[in-house]
Design brief:
Elements: E1 2-7, H1 12-15, H2 20-27, E2 28-29, E3 37-43, E4 49-54, E5 59-62, E6 77-83, E7 88-92, E8 95-99, E9 104-107, E10 114-118, E11 122-128, E12 136-138, E13 144-148, E14 157-163, E15 174-180, E16 186-187, E17 192-193, E18 197-204, E19 212-218, E20 221-227, E21 231-235, E22 242-245, E23 250-257, E24 266-267
Parallel strand pairs: 1-3
Antiparallel strand pairs: 2-21, 3-4, 4-11, 5-10, 6-9, 6-11, 7-8, 7-10, 9-12, 13-14, 14-15, 15-23, 16-22, 17-24, 18-21, 18-23, 19-20, 19-22
């Protein structure tokens, strides 16, 4: 079963007028992972797509998606998939890959229908592409590992970059995930914006009672979303994207836009935020 929800782009002046329910309707993303289903959110932020596939006892195939008006979903797109569940398998045509928990699979433009099977919980990200690039399975040991933060500032964390210029080539999609160490709760602080790219977060590895307070909005007029396990947030180019959790967690970040320069950020001092 396939379901697709469309999210239109929101101007920052409009976002300032939103109450909690409206803010969540446009920027909070939940309910992606349901057994026996592929659930996608098609956004008008750089035509980025995020979604989930949980095959359970069967096989799920992502092929034609009406929103793209192409013969197959990947006809003019690239995709990066993160397995946040147990061992699963992904296949395209004559190729197949086994993904353990934490593995990332990149599929280039023109890969054709994509099939999911096994015990995986597959997080899907996709963006338009301009040329075909080879598929690649990237395991945690293949990622570029960056250590940042400190215990004193409650943001000691490990960043693993997967679809990233230091690891592999892509068209515009950039993806990795960040894990907070025990006792650290703040991610991506100091906060930043990047007007050249949008970004999406997916939070996971959280217990059911834990939450993350995800900060968004313009730096001088911030808003927040309360996010649970396996839920996400869309971040427009004008918005900061930062957060603090009630316990340990990991978040997947994915970006699409004008460039693939991970360091292309406009930092915002905490003293300037309101």
């Amino acid at each position: 079963m396939l379901s697709v929800e469309t999210r239109h782009a929101i101007h920052q002046d409009h976002a300032k007028t939103m109450g909690t329910d409206e803010l969540r309707r446009h920027f909070h993303v939940g309910g992606l992972f349901r057994e026996g289903e592929i659930r996608l959110v098609y956004t008008h932020y750089d035509r980025f797509v995020m979604g989930g596939a949980v095959p359970g006892a069967g096989t799920l195939t992502l092929d034609k998606v009406e929103e793209t008006r192409t013969a197959t979903f990947l006809e003019r797109r690239e995709m990066a998939i993160v397995n946040i569940g147990e061992t699963g398998k992904i296949a395209t045509g004559s190729e197949s890959w086994t993904l353990e928990r934490g593995d990332v699979l990149y599929l280039g433009m023109g890969s054709g229908p994509v099939s999911f099977s096994g015990a995986g919980r597959f997080y899907i990200t996709s963006a338009p592409a301009h040329r075909a690039l080879p598929a690649r399975l990237i395991r945690l040991s293949d990622s570029n590992c960056v250590k940042l933060g400190a215990v004193e500032t409650s943001n000691k964390r490990t960043i693993n970059q997967f679809v990233h210029p230091l690891v592999m080539e892509s068209c515009q999609l950039v993806l990795g995930y960040t894990t907070l160490e025990d006792g650290s709760v703040w991610n991506t602080m100091p906060a930043h914006v990047h007007d050249r790219r949008m970004e999406a977060y997916l939070y996971f590895d959280m217990s059911q009672e834990q939450r993350v307070l995800h900060l968004m909005g313009e730096p001088q007029e911030t808003r927040h979303l309360v996010v649970a396990n396996e839920e996400g947030a869309l971040s427009p180019p004008w918005s900061i994207h930062s957060g603090a959790g009630t316990g340990s967690y990991t978040f997947i970040w994915a970006m699409a836009g004008d460039n693939v320069d991970y360091t292309d950020m406009d930092f915002v001092s905490m003293a300037d935020m309101k």
